[in-house]
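From the shared-data thread, chain only:
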Amino acid sequence: MKKHIMAISVPLMGHTNQLIALSEELVRRGYTVSFVIHPTAKTWVNHPNIQVIPWEFQSIDDEYIAEKNTFWDNISQEPHSWRSNQLMLERTITFYRPMYESLKRLLQEHHPNCLIIDRAVVPAIDLATQQQLPFIIQSRFLGQFVKPSSDQPQFGTDYPTQMKGWQKVLNSLMPRLEKGYLLPTLLKLNRMRQDCAQQQHLPNPWENQTMIVGSSFDIEPQRSLPAKVHMVGPIFSTQHKPIEGLLHDWLESDKTGVIYMAFGTLATLSTWQAKELIEGLVQTGLKVLWALPEKAQAILPSLPSTVRVESFVSQSAVLSHPNIAAFVSHCGMNSIHESLYSGKPILALPLFGDQHYNAARLIDLGVALKLSKRRFSRIDVSSKMNQLLHNPCYQKKAVDISMRLKQTDGLNQAAQIVEIMIQTT
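Structure, as tokens:
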């Protein structure tokens, strides 16, 4: 009898991409795979042999799905990173119990042999631990799951690798200070976890667990890894959606280059940010393609004919197009992987979460320049973009990283780790 592997993810595209690619590969290898996700995201899983299991929990339509609320608008413009992290923790607490109870029912109904859990689904990790179900955590970045050495920039900071004296002092203090700031919220989350588990002991959900990290030390700072943590490289689907129709013709029509801009499906900009970005990019003389969800297009200023807006594109296909010269990005890890895999330099505009730390790492690598979300002008945008376009060092370093990333074989390595687990259970 085929072993049943169940993948579980929150309905946020940045969290699902690698997990969907891995699920497709496991089906190709002959396993029975189901994917637990909210019905509004079921179309993201379009492999005919993957069973999509609807995951509905209280208030999700009103509060969790990004299109339905202002949470991501607020967090994108929150000026203080500790406060934005606190807001995300509070959101985890709000949805912990309904997630836990609905997942408990799904596990009882479908009887999986093994789980692959997106690192953000803490209720699933806790349930698997309590029920002694074999599971693997999947994350698109290493981040804080394995701490950097004390002389490296700590996760959550935006300090460069070559820190000044004052930065070294703050770098050593920041993790402890932030933990103190977040401690009341963390304790509240742990009380919720213990209550749902009927006071059973629950360990740190990510500590001493098997984890597949779909990233690379070509991007993240090198550090030694525990035996259970596997850094496999970016995980991409083998099913590539090509660029077709009018967009294909538009990209092909001008060989001088196109600037691609996208901020994922969660991050949102204010009207002044959109205006300064467009006016600055137009000053470079290149065409601009902006992938902007329809719900966010109210921020758009009047657009010149050289700017094209699409509500959705196949980002990996766009970034791999030879006419794309550079990428303007929030620096979510999926976007970084796709950009550097295709050898494209990045103008970074980090907004929340890991994005500030990620942008700092790209600057260290020599493949990016950065804008501050709190204050930048069209002059900053055009000046920094022109540096990326006309200084060959940025392109060369991006291409060098691209060559290394293409040797990582992340999808195959990740699938092998799952196979080893399921064959030994």
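The chain has a mean pLDDT of 93.
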